User: Fold these one by one.
Assistant:
Number 1:
Amino acid sequence: MRSYLLLLLLMITPCLWAQKKELSQARSYIKSGKDFDKAERLMTDLLKKDTANRQNERIYLTWFQAVTKQYEAANEKLYLRQKYDTAAFFNLTRRLFLIAGHLDTLDATPDEKGRVKIRYREDNAEMLNRLRPNLYYGGTFFVRKEQYPVAFDFFESYLKTADQPLFTGYNYATTDSMMPQAAYWATYAGYRLQDASRTLRYFDVAVRDTAKARFAMQYACEAYGWLNDKGANLAMLKRGFADYPDSPYFFPRLIDYYNAHERPDSALYYAESALRTNPDSQLFLLAQSVALLNLERYDDCIRVSERLIAQNDSLAEPYFNIATAKLNQVLELDRRNQPRVYRNQMRKLYMDARPYMEAYRKLAPNEHRKWAPALYRIYLNLNMGRQFEEIDKIMRKL
């Protein structure tokens, strides 16, 4: 047993000696007023060499001092408008916050008797509170550089200070008006990275930035799409529409969702809700027209579509909707199985549908699969031989 303890001491002693030597060398660099980066490197090397060193308060304290000196030197150069790497300056700021966080955790660790004596928090927090805006400006700097992973890290560091024990008493969550903007830019950076987790992480704070809340909601919708969370995506689309009915993002996707899921009643509900905010919107009227067509409310569909054409006769879809509504009315009569009774009425509907479907063809020539089958039926039932032959050839190629 004595031999084992002696061996252990022999193993530990050189490590402690090396640690002491490197700490002493780092302090010498700091006192010399130069080579602060070398002092930092000595400390980071110690942390890499042995995980046990991560519990050594002195290493973090020395590391913090080394980076503080680098920051002060860089800040002086910027103040004097001397050439300096702006990215490096901001990175120094963020490192100070990371190091101080580790140091504060160790500083607040109870000793063997359960006592806690915090020595560095007050001074470090006071110093870093003055530097904290640089985390935000660093984030915006890296956004402009399109370095989104780095930008996100800066905004996250800024936001996390609100919950760090190091900054107890500063109450950033309630006193800092820049928190929502920082959260928005973090959300934006996550979105540009197509990273759902980072996009959504600070979304609840980001939407408090009223100037950009609609964009934050858009990014959240996209993030839920990446996660294939259809329920959350739909809920966010509804929320976005409720707050921003005129947004070109939420309403079309909401209507597309209900049309794809064969929920025309819901599509009509949202179309009519939107029309209450903007009764003349062609987008909202078109959505209403489609929903009415899908609900087999053909006369209402025709009425809304004619209103759209009166507003803008170059829109293709209203012509298609009117023609389709009339052709569907033919089918309703045909299902009654009384051809002699309804022959003239059915012919008139075909005649009425024809100019609208032909207009749709002119406005949307590439939509063969929509207009060709319809015109085939119209020309066949109206005995229009030349036109029927032309459409027949097109149908054979589909």
Number 2:
Amino acid sequence: MRKLTVTEMHRLSPDEFRASRKLPLVIVLDDVRSQYNVGSVFRTADAFAIEKIILCGITAVPPTAEIHKTALGAEDSVAWDYCASAADAVRALRASGYCVFAAEQCDESTILPAGEIAAGRKYAAVLGNEVKGVRQEVIDACDGCIEIPQFGTKHSLNISVAAGIVMWEFLRRLRL
């Protein structure tokens, strides 16, 4: 077994990536404090070829050194927008035909991998603040909540880890 070189991996250029087919998934970051988490979400979004990231509230926007440190340039390849209000972003996405889920622990959450994720639809997933999670106002604007099962003593994951799991689940269900 031999590790592949970068050339052998046939990576897309940023321009090729922007023109490539995307997973019909938008990630909405609501009041994410850590720019390193934001950068990590960009990098994972690039890996899974998601459609776009919407940065909301206090979430930092590129370019910053902290975002770049973990994004490694993915902030230049992945499409992104800024919206002051995550609730407004969710309402706009729903008006554009997206089915929007908050990644949050709620009384009626659907535990992944269950749930209706079907080809031919557009989706968005909202991930919230590192301490407070997704705000209730934003949850109320969503179509539902999805929850990542957890079996230990902690009842939360780092935002970038949770985003990666959510993106993987959508990729798995829609493209693999």
